[in-house]
Amino acid sequence: MTANFMFVSDDNYTKNLGVCAYSVLHNMCPAVDQVRVFVMDCGITEEHKAQLQKQTERFDNAEMIFYNIETLLDEVVPKEGARWHRAIYGRLFFPQLMAQYPDIDRLVYLDCDIIMDAPVTELFEMSLDGKCLAGVVDASDTERKQALGLAPQAIYINSGVLVIDTARWMALDASRRIIDYINSIPEELLFPDQDAINYILRDEIKVLGLAYNMMWMLTDRDIPKLVRNIADLYYTEEQVHDALHHGKIYHYAAHDMWSFDGITPIHARKFVKYRNLSDWRGVRRRFQNAGQFCMWLIFTVKRMLTGDFWK
Question: Among residues 79, 81, 224, 239, which one has the fewest Cβ atoms lying within 10 Å of its Cβ?
């Protein structure tokens, strides 16, 4: 079996990509015949590409393929003054990649701020029940569904991990429809790519277990309290508990993996593990400012007192 993964990165995120990609190769290469990592390139320097390729060559059955999409990104009109880099739209251009690699029938997209900690071969073998993608329901989605005019029972997934049936996606002309939607109301979308994917493909989504996109906020609290506090949490207390102990993909959403900015001890340990195995092992985590150090100290003491630190 060939496992096809897709990332999107510009030059600023290459060290994130390096550690993330290493975690994927470390877990997937022993489990499948071949791993192909497609990087939708938003301006990565040749030096950094060479560094990423060198790391990939440590695995005999792995290949990293760069596909430049800098000019394609001009098709999307970003929100005025948006805090998001336009690279977030890069995943929408994978159909152009298909012209060169028509054998890709299942593609797993991953944000560059994730760590894979177990093989996920099942994502390439599972049925999507005729739908074009699968993902993990976002931790708190009611407000976004209301803003987009989606029904209360609609599924709103986090787009950091997507399992894509490429043939179904292309048959639906999904990329074009999503881009047109973004361009039609750029100022109204809080998470432009994620909002648009959920709105346009609202009837084409299969729900994945929480273990495939374990967001940091779900690994730091008493689970019964967490379930009570997030009123619209899609998953049950039992499902959250199971994911906490059998997580496969950890997501650092809105946090810098390389800094001490409040991410939970579980996520911090996963990152340090794969950073130390990767070719970026010499790059250290850091405090961005004195305020961050104070917050880290407060969080650390609190977690030690409550037992969270030792999970």
Answer: 81
